[in-house]
Queue: 4 jobs
Job 1
Amino acid sequence: MNVKSQTSMPLFEALCEYHRKNVIPFDVPGHKHGRGIPQLVEFLGETTLQVDVNSMKSLDSIGNPIGVIKQAQNLAAKAFGARECFFMVNGTTSAVQAMIMSVCKPGEKIILPRNAHKSAINGLVLSGAIPVYIQPGVDERLGIANGVKLEDVKKAIRENPDAKALFLINPTYYGMTSNIKEIVNEAHSNSIAVLVDEAHGAHLHFHEQLPVSAMEAGADMSAVSMHKTGGSLTQSSLLLVKNRLVDNKFVRIVIKLTLTTSASYLLMSSLDVARRNLAVEGKEIMDRVLKISRNARKEINDIEGLYAFGGELVNGDDVFSFDETKLGICVSEIGLTGFEMYDILRDEYNIQMEMADAYNVLAIISIGDTEGAVQKLVEALSEISKKYRRENISTAKPILKNPEVVVSPRDAFYSCQKTVRLERAIGQISGEAVMAYPPGIPIFAMGERITSDMVEYIKFLKSQNASITGTEDPGADYIKVLGM
């Protein structure tokens, strides 16, 4: 990669030039540089609203980019080691779904771990693909899923040689990765395309002490949440394409199925700027981020009863490597659930964590963090460990085993359904997905057999005031199942 060439920001620079010219707008959006919505101008500032504009010749068009958007996408492709890059403005959800729809037709198989994000499950509904689930590794102490084992991938491929795609997560929410290089080689030797959910890995490509990125490993496509760890605005992401097992022209067609014709230039220009910063200064940026995260992990592990897990979990298989910027903290030994710790930090210390589960809380350490901010987290954890320590923890074992898939997600989605109380759903086939968000990994998804363990875990989540989504009933007291 030519770092010098990466200093330019063609889309962002074009937007700045538009702003400098003070164009008189008779196009949409209707607020006309913010004049029609003064409350937002006062809150967000004049410049933000003045550059919230629609496509035009000088700014190119996301539907058929031939100018500055195309230039910006090409620079991003080079920065990440891809053959082609598409800017996505509907989050990584749309990128994940586009990957699946680009490779799998209705009735074709895709191999994937069951701890995939709901966007992948919904991608199965949209594509009509048939899931072949791999059981991810499980850390029983932490109550979390790891990556997938190479041997389990080989077994799934042997048993399903007609599979069209293999879907991986790199890294997991908590930072674990699989042996992605060897898995890619195994899949490609069987003419199976490799799709990677890299929602939490935008930064991986830019430091040698981080796990290998999907493009470095030779994956065919990856969906990258630049807004999560790369510094762009929320909802902006990249879809990267590399290998010849994927038709990039068809990918472009699939993206257009759901792509807005009014893409936000605020989002797209933020991708351009974030790409420039990672490509030009990524090594220095990630040096600082890793230093902050390592220091915090060490200090937290000096607090009695808390465990900030990290590279010691690496086993060369389902935890092939570990992303140290993910600061996961197990709190069960002080008698709290992760959900309780999450609420205490937010309500009493004004600290917002990324997510919680039964045993852990998670902080994402990224390019915008400071040593001072992280120190406040460490101090808060130290106080909480003394103030709230108790002997017994009221928890429930998370559902980490692959469920029974009775009906394909698409068939379940379009089947006749009825609504039953949660307790009466045991043994029936789900017509919807249920999950805590974040992380957005379904406890059960459409077409899967509902078990008593699943129901008990949902009740536990409700008792912890966790955010439960996916159900038609906002409280998840009622569940839609197949049947009349």
Note: The mean pLDDT is 95.
Job 2
Amino acid sequence: MSIDLLAFFKATNPGQTINIADPDDRKYYIDFSPVRGGTVIEELKENITIFYANQPSCDLFTGHIGCGKSTELLRLKAELEAEGFHVVYFESSDDLEMADVDIADVLLAIARRISQSLADVAIAEPQGLKRLLKRTAELLQTEYDLSEVELGLPKMPGIPDVKVKANDKGALSLAFGIGKITAKARADSGLRERLNQFLGPKKAELLAAINQELIEPAIAQLQQQGKQGLVVIVDNLDRIEGQTKGWGRSQQEYIFIDQAEYLQKFNCHVVYTMPLALKFADEYARLTQRYKEEPKVLPMVQVQQVDGSDCEEGMALLRQMVLARALPDLDAQGRLNRVNDIFDHPESLDRLCRVSGGHVRDLLQLLIQWLKKDLKQGRLTRETLEGLIRSRRNEMTLTIDDHEWGLLRKVRERKKVSGDDGYQKLIYSRLVFEYRDRGESWFDINPVLAEAKELRE
């Protein structure tokens, strides 16, 4: 039976996060934890279910954008729900303007998503929180009513053009009220500034209202229903951009270090994704002092050893990740038996896995371009792949200056990076990847660059 390359193409969407709770998605899931230096998700789960089971907890989770954090967090959500937790998972980039984020924006986004998720939980109307939000809305000169009257919302980014009646608990109207405020502010930098000037000094009051009127009553009701507690997973907060605030502070350092106290004040379990650049910033020591737990890092899938030889286990898992998208209903050996039906040679698949450096999204992006080029031929050829690699290498080298080439040579030789700003850029731009093996962390250049003439000088 021939392989349907068009179906293979449709299953290879680099922007699609695998949700392990979905049986269709689960066919594509590969557990890379053996070649990522440990069970990071298991550590996050144990903090919630064992070590901080009866108290609020806060964890930071980081790694390269596109390395698979969202997939792993959805796995964490599914496992926590299986153990009886109510889990609120959301992508903060849907709520926040990532180029201009303040702590009040984050607090409101979390309050909105909790409120939405708890719409069916019988809790008293959060009067204090609604009064604070109404004062905020009046400041922004928006029509705002959280009573039983209809909330007719204009069409704005992130807010449906519908009319919704508040329910008897006020939870749905609260979520829509917050959404109305934040959508207006997100679309207008002036309004966003006024919102944060007003709520910034009131963040302690805002958090107290969220805890006392929303989270604590909800947890009490959830526990009466046999639930273990409430967990909030804030994904994509690692995408906060790194520009400097008006007073000279990096936006990432301001949110995760200066405002650490408030990120940790929710009276439930919270997991935030954190920008990887902070791991290599001079302020990282301050960050670790402000949280109970050090950030958990999801490194690259290990495709090679420090000495440059193949990591056989990592290569085997990456092969399965690719083949599962072409042959989701076969077992691992059955897929391997069909490699020659998809690729002109098994080594072509291995070349794809090696050159990805173990970065899941980079691999899928290269694969989907390869499929588009060779779809009509019926098999994926090495010649096409090499052309795509050369094209990507050319695009990457256009942005690298002489100083950065020097840093890349040092990384290749030493397998280390420092806190230098140049290294932060190399990591952010995915020119350098981090790997972990038996507790040891090491770095190497993106394999796409390995054959660049600038690295041969």
Note: The CA atoms of residues 166 and 173 lie 5 Å apart.
Job 3
Amino acid sequence: MPEDDRAFLEALPVKQREDLFSSGLSSKEARIKLLHQLKSVLLENEGAFMEALHSDLGKPAFEAFSSEFAVLLNEIDFVCKHLGKWSRPTTSHHLKMGYVERVNRKRHPYGSVLIIGSWNYPLQLTLMPAIGAIAAGNRCVIKPSEHAPATAQLLKEVINHTFSIEQLHVVTGDAQTASFLTSSSFDLIFFTGSGQTGKIVAEQAAKQLTPVILELGGKNPCVIGETGFSKAAIREIVWGKFLNAGQTCIAPDTLFVHQSIYEKTLTELSASILAFYGDRPQESKDYGRICHEAHFQKVVGLMGQGKVQHGGTYDRSHLFIAPSVVTDIEQGSPILQEEIFGPVLPVIPFRDFDTLLSSLMIQRDALTGYIFSKDRDEILLFKEHMHSPTISVNQVIHHAASPYIAFGGKGRSGYGAYHGKAGFLAFSYEKTDFRAYHYLHLQQKYPPYSDQNLKVLKKIRKWLF
């Protein structure tokens, strides 16, 4: 049936939900088997996915494997190892006056989950939430981004060939298709993308009271304090900023540098960029491309709002923008207000750390906050100032690959979290079986009430409830 058939799309969550409810909660072994199938799909089609990622984003093989494949394979292994413990029901007993209560809790799947992937990591950000959803026992419909067409088409071919439509199904299409899906009767929607689109998804889902998890972006600040400069620190920042040509939601967005180390930081930034990509980065096999032309236009426009200290070249025909460092930016410029999401690094000097934090230049609810410093008080002050769910000290990016760390945003950077156990919890809800075994029936709890009984209730209420 054609995927642009609205009746087909509308029936997907209904079909999956009916199959789930008719077959009942799948066993731990059945869910692990499905995850192993997904792992086999990745391994068997690794070469094809590598080619697709290069076609969509010009990703070098090393970056494609490390940031897309490795994290997915590790996540599957981690989830399969711990799923039995996470799925195990818990039981507790509590002695009350007149009865003993037994509380049995168990995680249950929501039902049919819609996952809308993003184009910047079109494999990882599409399948990572699916791992958590499958682990929790859900059925899934996946909508990859149309801006990464090669990866989206390959996902559709291999997933739909391997899994039944009732279990896991990929739907390709444009924004209109995504809009129709988010207005359909799914039991949970997981969206990765821009804040603007995230608001639309949340608004559409709210009309049907469908819960939503939003993984958005933000202007992740990166601060180098007076004690934080080193060549290793600059290499780390340059690597994290220009990974995937800057199209990473947790990349350092803007670099704030103490005035005392400002000049040598600029010098070392240029040296690291040259060491990584050479003086002709367009010819480097280790540097990616911008995903689509509209985004290319936006990033080039932002780059022109300051003095280009390094880089600054671009080629529209190949969607290439050189790794660039920009300085001397006027306050209020869009580059300081909007998420850049590209290979342009603004560098802003500051004299006083407290003044920097109070200047409103730092987005407190960014997805991640980075600080390079040896000053414990400075690090603590930064942690207290930021509202980001993750604060990373003296490193960038790596935390997002750990299944032990919940990945998610707050405020403008989204809500809800996943990865590892957090993903299992995000895609399930707690179902409680409550039973009370009475050894004494208290007639005073029934009407008609009396003032005397109210006095007694106030004295013994902690043993009653």
Note: The chain is about 40% helix and 20% strand.
Job 4
Amino acid sequence: MDNTESIWRLVDAKRGGFEALSDRVWGMPELAYTETRSCAEHTAMLREQGFRVTEKVAGIPTAVMGEAGEGGPVIAILGEYDALPGLSQEAGVAEPRPLPGPGFGHGCGHNLLGSASLLAATAVKEWLAENKLPGRVRYYGCPAEEGGAAKGFMVRDGAFKDVDVAISWHPAAFAAVQEAVSLANTRIDFSFVGRASHAAAAPHLGRSALDAVELMNVGVNYMREHMPSDARIHYAYLDAGGVAPNVVQPTAKVRYLIRARDLVELRRLIERVRKVADGAALMTETKVSSKVVSGVSNLLGNAPLERAMQNNLDRLGPPPFDDLDRARAAEFQATLTEEDIAASWRRIGLPMRKGVALCDVVVPLEVRGAPMMGSTDVGDVSWVVPTVQARGSTYAIGTPGHSWQLTAQGKLPAAHKGMVHVAKVMAGTAVDCLRDPALIEAAKADLAARTAANPYEPVLSPDVQPPLDMSVTAA
């Protein structure tokens, strides 16, 4: 791996403190909008590194922003630090071994995500000072990516209005520029209210809210044949109305997650789901109300920034994993299926190579695989700011996202090496933008062309507030 460029040397000089930050956040997993300790760790590091700090960005208690530099263009580097439920796991152990406690875990690697982004921002801060150049770098500590759409609220409330370029990344099996493909989505809670009664003596007097939810689910399931093949609809019961089968359930609540390839199709699907809910209420003589919990837009790509990021990856080469890293990764790969491993190669667009446990290549920009059609609130940022993302290799090839295996690998030396490697990619891309105003102008022109026919309209209307209690409500 090439470390000759000054910005990369600055990353290496700072890496130790940020590897430790990542490990601390790994050890305090917190769910969406409850990341109090994790945010405090990032805030303390921002102050320690000399950033000007703004807390409670967009009124969100666990969102923070640090800025350094003066004048010039503004480069934002985005970080996250929320965890997931049900993914607690002892570090470094290649068998399921949950830790005592509430069962939370960093099964998506956000402990690494936030730390690498803050490391990159710190290196850019030092680079600006050393070179005495105008320009500002910002680190945005963004909570609740896992379903809470915090960046969507931050965008809607103007947190990125003066940003010229946004850069981010995500832990992955391979080192690459991330293809800008994701699903727009929204979470909506549907609450049904009926009438309680004795289920045996007077069932005719009851009106079951639980029946209404079940009928809604049946109706949506019949919709699946008649919606775009890349759309997705999921649901979860939040309140099934009680545990007594001899009582007609007077209340019930279900949370729907509706996903589509773009905002136009998402809005169509939302209306169809709402009609199904109304129909279920009509059939059961209950009443239904709904509340939007969160929503995100699909990602927009940016060709000039993607080429600049790929250039940094090509100059750096693959992460500097050693034989011990590969041996540890092979232990985790042994817990996976052949399908897991093949899917990882297929997703990145490279032919499968058996016996390869860790990334040893840089994926070319023109290679396109079968994308993982998930969702991210980075999508909303990409509609208002030219945005580019990297994939940073931090775990064994084949490791499924949101798994105990991913949690277990979050503190290994390979994870640290991968996060430092991607920090260099992001910092180098930021420096390219600061050195070359034409790159920023080309990135802005690219964004303008992509949104000309379909301007940004937030999924989140002004009356929807950040669901600060969503992790409690859904528990």
Note: The first strand starts at residue 52 and ends at 55.
